[in-house]
Amino acid sequence: MRDPFIKPLAILHKLQQNGYLAYFVGGSVRDFIIGRPIGDIDIATSARPEDVVRLFPKVIEVGIEHGTVVVVLENEPYEVTTFRTESDYKDFRRPEEVTFISSLEGDLERRDFTMNAIAMDENETLIDPFGGRDAIKRGIIETVGNADERFSEDALRMMRAVRFMSQLSFTITPDVKEAIRRNRHLLQNIAMERISVEFQKLMLGNKATEAFRTIVDTGLLEVLPLHEKKELIEYDWTTISEETSAWSLLCLILEVEDTALFLRKWKLSNKRIKETEKTVVFYRSIKEWTPFAIYQSGLEVALRVNHLKRILQGVQSEEEKIRLIYESLPIYSPKDIEANGKDLVSWGNRAQGPWIAQCIQELSENIVCGKIENDRNVIKEWVSKWSLKFDESC
């Protein structure tokens, strides 16, 4: 057995020693076959959830009513799920009832795509009742059984199909693509948080442009908050490797006016929204990379904007210039100034107020641009003069 299956192999052995069947299943097996980096490793077993809880000293009983227990082994979490079948689905995403079974094949039959319906034992022997290996070899995405049924069970599977297309460079079969077109309206029943997770992974895939084209062709565009624009297919997404860059590029291509409002529709975190909003603002405002512009943006945002300008405008990269300017900055934030707010109040001979922010802004610019030194005595003199001018302008 090869890494990273070696550690969780102990879970399989423990279950087997107690008379239960246990296998690695799902995405980890798929990626093992493909040769991709392996993420989360899931285990399917004939053991009931209460048996899993009894056998392992450290467990998290998350989803136990649906048969899933997280076993923590050497500080690593592994989902262990009882073989199960599922009844009719409600809300197009959750089964009305889960029934525990003893058949591995019955458990694999409920999964979304054939490439994800493969199990592997401790000897790396594959159990593949639905032709998942052949689908992987052919580079196709096909459902386990009837596509309409799979998508009506969980409408998010349509987004997963397009996401896998982007990540794996696979092709969605014509019948599955038609099923997405027929069932696209069901995606409206899925929480946007779940959709945005899939969409973000899609944007970071090697074939994002082709995936966007499929979104347009299948009509998924109509049920996603994408302003019904098709321009996404006109740009090269292959060099986008991190989340904020992806959302920033999306906003810029769609010419989104209110970035925060648009991203809130996708239910992104406040942190992601702020990072993306800052990137978009600097992309639209920066004409030249001056020291103060880089000071204001910070190195991370400046490099991100530089990358986006290469994609959208075809301009030459200025990364080396940006890094050289950043390394030469005398300060990197107001915290580096040899004075604080109390000093400004004292030297300006005035009460605290909004003026402090304006003073710090102008002081920072003067230091960054080399007009004054970041020296306490020099700053004191500058603040005194600035305060007098401030009074005259009021």
TrEMBL record:
Homodimer. Its cofactor is Mg(2+). NCBIfam families: PRK13299.1. Pfam families: PolyA_pol, PolyA_pol_RNAbd, tRNA_NucTran2_2. Gene3D superfamilies: 1.10.110.30, 1.10.246.80, 1.20.58.560, Beta Polymerase, domain 2 (3.30.460.10). Belongs to the tRNA nucleotidyltransferase/poly(A) polymerase family. Bacterial CCA-adding enzyme type 3 subfamily. Catalyzes the addition and repair of the essential 3'-terminal CCA sequence in tRNAs without using a nucleic acid template. Adds these three nucleotides in the order of C, C, and A to the tRNA nucleotide-73, using CTP and ATP as substrates and producing inorganic pyrophosphate. tRNA 3'-terminal CCA addition is required both for tRNA processing and repair. Also involved in tRNA surveillance by mediating tandem CCA addition to generate a CCACCA at the 3' terminus of unstable tRNAs. While stable tRNAs receive only 3'-terminal CCA, unstable tRNAs are marked with CCACCA and rapidly degraded. The lineage of its organism: Bacteria, Bacillati, Bacillota, Bacilli, Bacillales. CDD domains: NT_ClassII-CCAase. Keywords: ATP-binding, Magnesium, Metal-binding, Nucleotide-binding, Nucleotidyltransferase, RNA repair, RNA-binding, Transferase, tRNA processing. One of its GO terms (biological process) is RNA repair. It comes from Priestia endophytica. Residues 239-383 form the CCA-adding enzyme C-terminal domain. PANTHER family: CCA TRNA NUCLEOTIDYLTRANSFERASE 1, MITOCHONDRIAL (PTHR46173:SF1). It catalyses: a tRNA precursor + 2 CTP + ATP = a tRNA with a 3' CCA end + 3 diphosphate; a tRNA with a 3' CCA end + 2 CTP + ATP = a tRNA with a 3' CCACCA end + 3 diphosphate. Its EC number is 2.7.7.72. The gene is cca. One of its GO terms (molecular function) is tRNA binding. This is CCA-adding enzyme. Transmembrane segments: none annotated. A single active site specifically recognizes both ATP and CTP and is responsible for their addition. Residues 22-141 form the Poly A polymerase head domain. Residues 170-227 form the tRNA nucleotidyltransferase/poly(A) polymerase RNA and SrmB- binding domain. The keyword Cell membrane does not apply.
